[in-house]
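Morning!

This is the sequence you dropped in the shared folder:
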Amino acid sequence: MSFVDKEFLYFLPIFAAVWYFTRGRYELKIASMLALSLLFYAYHRWWLVLLIGAYCIADWLAALAIERTKRPRLALAAGLTFNLGVLAAWKYTPLAISTINSLTGWKIPGTEMVSDGWFIPMGISFYGFSGIAYMVDVYRGVVKAEPNLVRFSLFTTFFPHLVAGPILRAKEFLTHLRPGELPEHSEARLEGTFLIARGFFKKLVLADSIAIAIDPFFADVSGAATAGVWSLPYVYLYALQIYFDFSGYTDIARGLGLWFGFRWPDNFNWPYLAVSIQDFWRRWHMTLSRFLRDYLYIPLGGSKHGVLRTLAALMITMLLGGLWHGANWSFMIWGGLHGIFLCINYLWAKTPLRAALEKLNGVPAAIWTAACIAVTFHAVCFAWIFFRLSSLNDIENCIRKIFVFDAEKMLVGGSADVPVWVLLIGYAIATAIAVAVTRMKPLPDAIPQFERQAFVRGAAWGVCAGLLLLTGALQQVGQAPPFIYFQF
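The structure's back. Tokens below.
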């Protein structure tokens, strides 16, 4: 099931009612939340319960073994092998077979089903990484192993964050499921409702409208229909689409978490205003960034073992992070590009010129900052081409059409879709107004100010209701396409 499925309109009130009426009955609440979360995940494919159940049991047992046996490293290795092995089998079998076929020139018998109808379980990368983080934290002594399987299974499967994150750590969620810690009341209902409303607007109105405008171009980027078309506006629009799509999911997930009493970390912080690639990864998919930092980059040596070791750690981390996103070599190239960008950024940060430019003030400083934002944004957009397209021929044509195009086709087709640009400009204006009203304070700090006065509180709730109604009025007709990150 997905947040944008019609069935979710029935599922959510049922879950909320069960959560509300089981207050004060700890065991029943935990069990019912787990059962409904499993129903959410396996609604369309019942056998997915077996897969995620295996993950829950394996990670739970591995953590207990890490804490209680004399060979914790062996128990950790077993747990990591299970998580990564199952993940690799599901995600990378088609890639391995197609690569072998292309390199050897012959087709492995019986692989037709793999190439034609292979299914990757939704969210397997996210709950796989969550389990890895949990086992490593137990091994490091950061948290205690959870003795209760039902509680741990709820930590893994709770429906708001299950399919596409944020990637949660035990201290952010699991510890709050224990007796005496499990919330009985909502956390920041107004903030949660606003996040849900904003998330649905981002996904159903902005991201889906952009998708309709740009999908035909990317589907035929090497064909006659797009000959001479300028590709840069489409690349810009895709950068906005993937941001609105993924951050929209995160908003909904975090809002639902607040409704049921849990505050989870944000995943995005104005990523396209980053002044460097390093800054970008501090703002984009932040829970994945910290996972890669803490469980891959730092164990590889981080920045404490010299320049060459640091550069190697950066490249390996981003290459594996790229491959994590999907079973296609273009994702690894995407990760490799970001690795190269980060290496350049690391070396540039050590130069005297960079230090001098950082000391600028006033107008020169503003110009330098704007230039940094522009360069970073375009580097990110260039890498997005490898993320969006899987064929090297399509990628080559898309890049070529950035520089070689017909003047009469600079803005044609979806890139000239006026309603899409009106929506984006309107959202930008509304965001600017919101930033001015809140004085750039984070939502958790700004929302309580609105709740102090009855009129302002009512107006804030009205904004939430109006945003939901506007979403219903402007969303695209028909079944909404799945969230982009569901494929990972």
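Headline: Residues 201 and 470 are 8 Å apart (CA to CA).

More detail when I'm at my desk.
O.
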